[in-house]
From TrEMBL:
Residues 282-303 are annotated as: Disordered. One of its GO terms (biological process) is maturation of SSU-rRNA from tricistronic rRNA transcript (SSU-rRNA, 5.8S rRNA, LSU-rRNA). It comes from Oreochromis niloticus. Keywords: ATP-binding, Helicase, Hydrolase, Nucleotide-binding. The keyword DNA-binding does not apply. Signal peptide: none annotated. Transmembrane segments: none annotated. Residues 211-439 form the Helicase C-terminal domain. Belongs to the DEAD box helicase family. DEAH subfamily. This is RNA helicase. GO terms for molecular function: ATP binding; hydrolase activity; RNA binding; RNA helicase activity. Its EC number is 3.6.4.13. Residues 282-300 have a biased composition (Acidic residues). The gene is DHX37. It comes from the Eukaryota.
């Protein structure tokens, strides 16, 4: 018996998934695994866990688990479901990499897919759970794919042992053949239940021309026009990244300033809009048949600030602080129009209420990896037709809507139909190690929904062998056998220890070696810092205005000075960028890790909090593998001694040994493109130390690096000097 408030009751009844409750629960009873497809916003994530709960799936002391590919979704959905069910967060809880509120009373547990994978390592049968829901399966994130493969084995095992578990795979699109038609995955295809979303029609307006560069500018003009000319209703703009999101937010706030008190009344704004429509020759919106195609000419949208029609502009992207993210679910201040500038996060995982207009730039930012060299770069590319349609669908949740595509229909016609599964696009050494630890020796035979390429699997096994995590394959026998052996190397004890650390294999190796010379606290701090995204403020960020320019220059100088201080002196200088990270972590902890300290020191607060949590988690993991070392997190960590620095550099080399670069020399230097450049074994192209690196001036002969990112040049990130052999 769930005690829901009348408002919640009423809102639930409007969700299409509720009409399917009986069908879904009957299918769950009769099948070990089922697939549920339904448009974003149809109520899958918030309601299906409740169906299971009410049908008694959490009553025998076991839990209902739901996995999400994104942390944002795991946290916000757990809060939402707790609220709907009128239950405390001790009962409807969440667990993400660094934090959670799970208790022994938890009955419904939202988690990221990575968290469930770790749990499978501890208990392959997942005995704590009576049902697992894999949410957002259409996103085809790597962990989701692996989980589905593993669960296709776990579910029958649980049945055989007489303690059945149910698997529910949920997808926002109908494209689920990779799961249902894959005989290796499910011998009997699981039934697919379609939830017919009450989706209102969305009129698509294509641009006639496609802006090749300035799509943010185009998004600005289009949003201005919508706001000036079209009836009330929220606007959702899709851009590709954080910087774009902020720049558009700033421009829109400037154009339609919103201050408490300057809200227009409904009557006023309606009159103004009518006048503008007439002026623009678009006719009367009240006709019901009005032409809402705004055209792509930017000239008729003036840029003068207009405070009479305030726009309530909010950013939304995954690195945004949670309390900022939560704002998008709340109604905008009365008399304003809601306008959300978002990245892909808003495409399927979060449903924002009240959106009537979508502006879609048609692009997406993705990380690309070179298959041979591992060099990665973020590139903005066209999205797929399926994604573009998902985005458009966001406009038709509450009433008929409009989607403005900032590209032509011909360009749309050239988009790929679907986005590729992530597993085919990135290195897989972390997955291979996790799978070996689960005693899946022949990873090639694993029932992947979409298998990674054999090259990627071979490269992963080779790296793991070189790190000592897997046994060397025998080099005798026929070529064919040797090749097969290369893909089925057994895991070593070191590999098992590495697999228990929640970081990628190269970093896990460093942790495993950290015992020497009391270096562990430093190794833990450095690894934590290396694996958290973007901890430093970008010193190359352009000034937002003329006035800011001189202030920003001062700030740059001050922050550069501070980083120099963190880099230390003498021997520690050779640790390079890693020493800066260590110094930053030490200084931040010493100051109590406050938002103020971070702001003053050019550190991203959220990243520093993550590092702090990860240090705690890694410390526990190391103690679990190796209790005799007894490490603890010391908030007043003193800088490493000279001797420890030497040791740290060796440890870093052991982890990043395959990321070695040597200063270009000899004949190479004749060609100016090799000036100050480095050579790596796998690439013909020169790579460089970034001007912001601690080692930019030193240019040591040999360095190891964390990764190579291609921006204006091939730059190494996280560089540290090593001795010549
Ligand atoms: P699906 O998983 O099918 O995309 P959801 O279960 O996420 O659908 O959403 C169902 C409804 O619940 C949506 O209309 C959405 O607006 C609403 N909703 C979800 N989370 C929140 C929240 N935190 N606050 C208010 N409404 C929410
Ligand atoms: Mg959902």
């Amino acid at each position: 018996p769930v005690d829901r408030s009348p408002e919640v009751q009423e809102a639930r009844l409007k969700l299409p998934v509720l009409a399917e409750e009986q069908v879904i629960m009957e299918a769950v009873r009769e099948n070990p695994s089922i697939v549920i497809c339904g448009e974003t916003g149809s109520g899958k994530t918030t309601q299906v866990p409740q169906f299971l709960y009410e049908a008694g799936y959490a009553s025998d002391g076991r839990m209902i688990g739901i996995t999400e590919p994104r942390r944002v979704a795991a946290v916000s959905m757990s809060h939402r479901v707790a609220k709907e069910m009128n239950l405390p967060t001790q009962v409807v809880s969440y667990q993400i990499r660094y934090e959670g509120n799970v208790t022994s009373d938890t009955k419904i547990k939202f988690m990221t897919d990575g968290v469930l994978l770790k749990e499978i390592q501890k208990d392959f049968l997942l005995q704590k759970y009576s049902a697992i829901i894999i949410d957002e399966a259409h996103e085809r994130s790597v962990y989701t794919d692996i989980l589905i493969g593993l669960l296709s084995r776990i579910v029958p095992l649980r049945n055989k042992k007489g303690m059945p578990m149910k698997l529910l795979i949920m997808s926002a699109t109908l494209r689920v053949e990779d799961f249902t038609e894959n005989q290796r995955l499910f011998r009997t295809p699981p039934p697919v239940i379609k939830v017919d979303a009450r989706q209102f029609p969305v009129t698509i307006h294509f641009n006639k021309r496609t802006p090749l560069e300035d799509y943010t500018g185009e998004a600005f003009h289009k949003t201005c026009k919508i706001h000036r000319m079209l009836p009330p209703g929220g606007i959702l703009v899709f851009l590709t990244g954080q910087a774009e999101v902020h720049s558009l937010c700033r421009r829109l706030r400037k154009a339609f300033p919103f201050r408490k008190g300057n809200t227009a009344t409904g009557e006023q704004s309606l009159k103004m809009r009518k006048r503008r429509l007439l002026e623009a020759g678009i006719g009367d919106e009240e006709d019901g048949d009005s032409d809402l195609d705004l055209g792509d000419d930017p000239a008729d949208a003036e840029e003068k600030a207009d405070g009479s029609i305030p726009l309530y502009v909010l950013p939304l992207y995954s690195l945004l602080a949670p309390e900022q993210q939560a704002k998008v679910f709340r109604p905008p201040p009365p008399g304003t129009r809601l306008c959300i500038i978002a990245t892909n996060v808003a495409e399927t995982s979060l449903t924002i209420p009240g959106i009537k207009y979508v502006v879609d730039c048609g692009r997406v930012k993705k990380r690309f990896y070179d298959k041979v060299t591992g060099v990665s770069s973020f590139k903005v590319t066209w999205t797929s037709q399926a994604s573009a349609n998902q985005r458009a669908g966001r406009a038709g949740r509450t009433e008929p809507g409009h989607c403005y595509r900032l590209y032509s229909s011909a360009v749309f016609g050239d988009f790929t139909l679907f986005s590729e599964a992530e597993i085919t696009r990135r290195p897989v050494e972390d997955l291979v190690l996790q799978m070996k630890d689960l005693n899946i020796e022949k990873v090639v035979n694993f029932p992947f929904p979409t298998p990674p390429s054999t090259e990627a699997l071979v490269a992963a096994e080779q790296l793991l062998v070189s790190l000592g995590a897997l046994e060397e394959p025998p080099c005798t026998g026929r070529l064919k056998d040797m090749q097969r052996a290369k893909l089925s190397c057994p895991i070593t004890p070191l590999g098992r220890a590495m697999a228990s650390f929640p970081v990628a294999p190269r970093y896990a190796k460093m942790l495993a070696l950290g015992k020497q010379q009391d270096c562990l606290p430093y190794v833990i701090a450095v690894v934590a810092a290396m694996t958290v995204r973007e901890i430093f403020e970008d010193l190359d960020r352009p000034a937002r205005s003329e006035d800011e320019s001189s202030k920003l220059n001062q700030r740059r100088a001050r922050l550069t000075q501070m980083r120099r201080l963190w880099a230390g002196q003498g021997a520690s200088l050779l640790l390079g960028d890693l020493m800066i990270m260590l110094g930053a972590v030490g200084a931040c902890e010493f100051a109590g890790c406050t938002p103020r300290f971070c702001e003053n020191s050019g550190l991203r607060y959220k990243a520093m909090v993550e590092i702090r949590k990860l240090r705690g988690q890694l410390t526990n993991a190391v103690n679990a593998v190796c209790p005799e070392v007894g490490v603890f997190v010391d908030p007043k960590m003193t800088p490493p001694t000279e001797h420890q620095v030497v040791c740290l550099r060796q440890i870093v080399l052991a982890g990043l040994g395959d990321h070695l670069a040597r200063r270009a020399q000899g004949e190479d230097l004749v060609d100016p493109k090799w000036k100050n450049a480095y050579k790596t074994p796998l690439m013909d192209e020169p790579v460089f130390i970034h001007p912001n690196s601690a080692l930019f001036k030193t240019l040591p002969e040999f360095v190891v690096y964390q990764e190579i990112m291609e921006t204006s040049k091939m730059y190494m990130r996280g560089v540290s000097a090593v001795e010549a052999e």
